[in-house]
Structures are given as C-alpha cells and as structure tokens.
Amino acid sequence: MYFCNCICPVLTREQSLFMMYKNNLKLKIMKTICLLLSLMLLPIVASAQKVKIDGIWYALNLESKTAEVTRGDYTDSIVIPMFVSYENIQYSVTSIGDYAFYSCTGLTSITIPNSVTSIGERAFYNCSDLISFTIGKSVTNIGNHAIDCPYLTSITSLNPTPPAIALYTFSSNTTYMTDLYVPTGSKAAYQAADYWKEFTIIEEIDVTGVQSIHADRHQNAIVYDLNGRRHDAPTKGVSIINGRKVLVK
C-alpha cells in the first residue's frame, strides 16, 4: 500500500476571507472597466445618428454639433442649408459625404453652403441631369470623382483660394465644356492651380451681386433665405431661389 507524502496547506479563516475579498475585488474591477468602455463608446454610437430633414439625409454628430449630408435619392434643384435643427439642437452642415448624391439622375442644380469645408469622393458621381454647381466659399477639399457629371454647363466656386482637387474630380469633358466662375481677383489663382487650370473658360464674377426679379415670377420655386431656412414662397429681400441668389421686389 502506498501513501501520498505531499502536504496540502490548510488555510486559516483569515486567509480564506482574504482570498474571497481578493476575488471579489478583481470582479468589481472588471465590471468597472467594462462600464467605462461602454461609456467611451456611447458618443461614437450616438454620432452615427442618421435623420432626414426637409428632404435631405444627414449624419448628425451629437458631440461636435455638426452634420454631414449622406446618401439619398435626390432630385430637382437643391440648396443645402448652413444649419439644420433636430430635437431642439442646431447642427452646422460641414461636409458632403462620400457617395451622398451618387447617380441621382434627377438632380438638376446644387448649391453647397458656405459652412461646408469638404466634398467626399464620388459625392455627385454620374448625376447626368446636373447642369449647375455652386461651391461654397469655405470648401477646401473636393474628393476624387466628386463632381464627375457629364453635362455640367456651369461651376461657380465662391472660394477665392482654389480648393484642393484630384486628377479625376471632374469628368473628362468638364474642363472644356463647362464655364468656371470664380470670385473677382482670383482668376489667376485658379489658372495656376493643379487641375483647375485645365478649364478653358474661367470668368470672374462679383459673388456679392444679386439678380433682381419680382416675387410673382417664382411662386412655385424652391426658396431659402440666406440662413438656409426653407420658405414656401419668395418674400421681399434677398433669397436663394432655385440655387441662385435673388433680390425679390
């Protein structure tokens, strides 16, 4: 008969209580770490909220109070506002997301507000009915194939400093078939800038100028005020009507 010579340690009551305390402490620490990670991820999840406001889809960033225009089925003439409100919170529209207007064949004109700083890749790719494009004065970067539209007749860039663009930001025929309008005094800068200089027609315009019309001529038009708020009909004063700044008498 064989006997085990090993000696199994016997814990005292104090040692047993200490081990129980140690294990409970580890469990509490793990629960605390999990809770902190959940709280850290909460703003990221919340910032991905996507909503539709006045016919335009936005991704709202609750932390920075900014909005990005996102993918939707858009038609006709669209003026993107500088600000949107959702659940009593105002958001500044700062970007046009990748593929936001991708292949929206019913879109005819677009006006990017001065609050926007970037236009994503293929944002307006293959918008075959798009003929008029206005780029706000704060846009500094336009992605590849972002304005790859075959039948554009005019592009108006309100930024006196040419935004950074890629080799294929525009379609292959845009630079010689489309008129490019830039602020007074900035023509030379566009003629010297990469890819912008490929435009054969670059004209300077007074971007503060407005067109004068009577209100009854645009009763069925798409109307915004200069703060980007939508109106049912033109009112006296300066408004944006069908993508153009207009003085209504």
Describe the structure.
With 249 residues, the protein is an alpha/beta fold. Helix content is 18%, strand content 30%. It has 3 helices and 18 strands. The strands form 3 sheets. Strands 1, 2, 3, 5, 6, 8 and 10 form a 7-stranded mixed sheet that branches. A 6-stranded parallel sheet has the order 4-7-9-11-12-13. Strands 14-18-17-15-16 form a 5-stranded mixed sheet, with no helix packed on it.
Give the terminus-to-terminus CA distance.
Answer: 115 Å
Number of distinct helices: 3
Q: Which structural class matches the secondary elements?
A: alpha/beta
Using only C-alpha atoms, the radius of gyration works out to 29 Å
Reported for the largest beta sheet, the result is: 7 strands, mixed
Mean pLDDT, all residues: 82
Q: How would you describe the shape?
A: elongated
Count of β-strands: 18
Level of helix content?
A: 10-25%
